[in-house]
Amino acid sequence: MTSVSSDGEGITLTELQLATRNHGLPLEALRWPVTPIGLHYVLVHYDIPQVDPAAFRLEIGGHVRRPLSLTLGEIRARPAVEITTTMECAGNGRALLTPRPLSQPWLAEAVGTARWKGARLAAVLAEAEVLDGGVEVVFTGLDRGVEGDVEQQFERSLPLGETLSGDAIVAYEMNGQPLPPQHGFPLRLVVPGWYGMTNVKWLAGVTVVTTPFAGHQQAHAYRIRLDEDDAGVPLTRMLPRALLVPPGIPDFPTRVRTVPVGPCVLEGRAWSGWGPIVGVDVSTDGGETWGEAELGEDEGRWSWRPWTYPWAPSAPGDHVLACRARDASGNVQPDEPIWNVGGYANNAVQRVPVRVAD
Amino acid sequence: MTSVSSDGEGITLTELQLATRNHGLPLEALRWPVTPIGLHYVLVHYDIPQVDPAAFRLEIGGHVRRPLSLTLGEIRARPAVEITTTMECAGNGRALLTPRPLSQPWLAEAVGTARWKGARLAAVLAEAEVLDGGVEVVFTGLDRGVEGDVEQQFERSLPLGETLSGDAIVAYEMNGQPLPPQHGFPLRLVVPGWYGMTNVKWLAGVTVVTTPFAGHQQAHAYRIRLDEDDAGVPLTRMLPRALLVPPGIPDFPTRVRTVPVGPCVLEGRAWSGWGPIVGVDVSTDGGETWGEAELGEDEGRWSWRPWTYPWAPSAPGDHVLACRARDASGNVQPDEPIWNVGGYANNAVQRVPVRVAD
Predict the structure, then answer these.
(1) Domain boundary at A183, A209, A234, which?
(2) What is the ipTM metric for this complex?
(3) Residue at A31 is within a domain
(4) A80 and A224 both lie in a single domain
(5) Could you tell me if A42 lies within 8 Å of chain B, comparing CB atoms?
(6) Cβ pair A147:B181 closer than 8 A
(7) Helix, strand or coil for residue A198?
(8) Is A268 in contact with A351 (CB distance < 8 Å)?
(9) I want to staple A111 with a disulfide (CB 3.0 to 4.6 A). Which of A55, A88, A138, B98 is the partner?
(10) From the candidates A146, A150, A245, A267, which should be mutated to test the interface with B, based on the most B CB atoms within 10 A?
């Protein structure tokens, strides 16, 4: 398999197989502050494991003084925290790149927000007593497959400092229910602000290591590489992005939107893993001119921020709507994507063509 | 937009937009007898409406003596029935046709099984007292869009006899929970054995009519038409189909399967809207020879039937697995699909390539 599409090539059968299994957030579902189960984006690398919760153990080990083997009941018995966090796939926007890296072909919809409940990762690690010399923590999922010709379970690492200071939890509930199978039942890692691949599902192993983890998902995949010779840098936190609810009504199957002449309120949500959202700009003329949206209530540091923008098209005609988020760290969405080998982190501004009709 | 793909054309952006919104059943989820929420296939023609349940009313009217306007509470107060039923999109298999009708590009995964709870449709109609001369019942959803250049809400009809004698319900629960938004919250029609388009979501109107309904989804879409000049016949019940859980482990992103040498048990499920499943045949050599699977427990007339088939590949090599269902009405899955304009009801046998490795 080649790694990018050839000139003008349509979506391949390989990409379609992934697109029919995995799914994004239908953009009208941006209306919900917490995404209902089944609408939150899902990406599964291998197969969804079917896990017996009674036999399940979370093994915490490696460079620690007191390795732990915890049942679900033991994890649930620990002090619980609940965090509402927006999660986005690092590959969101991939299918809008030219040439198109061949993998899950996301457009702009690989996102969702959930209420996750679990035990603090830092507290669990403190109980295991990490020894001096630990540098990273490796998280191992139960999902198994082949990738880059290597048979593996899905594994990612975090710097030790991030695990001890951050808001990360080992989560057993999503939106007040046990995790659905596709979101990691019975247990997953949730690391607020980081791209989806960090949030290891079907989490079964937490291992402190003394040298940087060199597994496939850390050393080869999920890195920004500008060409095949570039070793690249690992993806970490989510870049800012705003998305709008496509207004009016859609055509089936083209999804072209029709909006009536007259006042309407454009609405959407915006998020960033690097800092709170400080502004959203909206354009109704394809990016020639921009106006500032009104930000809605702040629903917590890790949850997307709602915004609205009044619009009143006065005559029939075609428009291209666009929106652009800015965060407190000074990051702004670019007009055009930065191409990279894996097709990651394309946070170029969303463009939504609409037809205004009488 | 042309209605079919051109020679060798890859999946188009139009199809991809649908594929990232709607999703199928990841085939490993055939392991669950009742599909967990979020894994059941979803097809939404327009946008998912956000419905205020307090303001919601189901209007039953048309050619009846006593029109009814029912709140959700009033519907829930009626005698409840719960049915476990397998539901499949009429477009399942579309993307495997050549040329490919351009719509939601399903491969083989547009299916799921749920426990639906609600009030019997026949009882509600009896209460409204259908007048002599009624021939059909039209079901109107709250989802609105444009299709075939006509602005419309999604509407489908059933023959009156089918509504009075069948097991259809107006459902407010799925798997013991309120309907998720994407499955029709707060109310949907469920007609066991019929293709998905029959099961109108966000159901707000039930109207008895005295002439056959000629709306878009009845007169133009969801018909088997062999060419553009063919008026065609409407789709009704699901043809038989068996699907198997792809064994072994997948490659990401190609999903090529690797299975170890030695015994394994192939498993899957089979269903038909025309009659109980009486047998499933399995091939491990691409359809040259077939053996009979063992049927598992019958989980009710409308639920898919589990099956197993022992296999013991003795040497490394490539295989194509296939399975084929037969029902009590004498229907058998064909080896090759019957092409039709809308790309409906392609129940040709599933083929799963696997690599047996040491």
Answers:
(1) A234
(2) 0.96
(3) yes
(4) yes
(5) yes
(6) no
(7) helix
(8) no
(9) A88
(10) A146
